[in-house]
Amino acid sequence: MILKPLISLILAFLLSPALAGNWKLEKDEEGIRVYTRDYPASDIREFRAEMRLPVSLDRVLAVFDDFKRYPEWKFKVSKAGVLDQPDARSWHHYQDINMPFPLDDRLFVLHSRLRPVSEQEVVIETRAVPGWCKAHDVKTCEPVNASDALLVQKASGKHVLRQLDDGSTHVTWIQHAEPGGVLPDWLVNSMLVDGPWETFNKLREQVNKPRYRQARLRRDAAGNLLGGFENVSW
Fold this sequence. Notes:
single chain; 10-stranded mixed beta sheet; two-stranded antiparallel ribbon; 12 strands; Alpha-D-Glucose-1,6-Bisphosphate, Chain A, domain 4; alpha+beta
């Protein structure tokens, strides 16, 4: 009676993404490192990107909170916006991804949640929720419903943001997605390596824009994160 659940537990452990394979360094330029590794039961590899930004955690999170400006810094994102915000720490949102002609563009409908780990570290967990707009008749879904892009069915990832003792912020982005359809190998490789690198390179520019410089996360008297910002200009 014990053997069957024990085998299931062992298999689940062995097939977990954490054990999918060792990370391989694919690109290391200008302070940005991008790694990839195999992902269980998928032909698409998982990527991890890392960099350090010489600004506060508050300022980095302010950029992430400004969804409508994602096209300014996220790789191939042409449109983006918030669909719904259930509370101060979670969002449903979308991103339109431009693909080169004649390939179909991709559309991500996502749920993201901010999880505080400590006063110096937060994790933003994200997963695809492709059926969200079908289940919710809201005006904000009009761009999603009108899109002829291919709706991505599977995606999951996280951003880990940790403020260092010198006031800078270390950012780690881990993600796996199944874009669907048929994509050439060179484009998949670009999405996995050049995409994260380009995104981080532009993020470095974005955090220095004046609109984010005075952003302050709302915290209680003990320093615990409440969600939302003070002194924002967007």
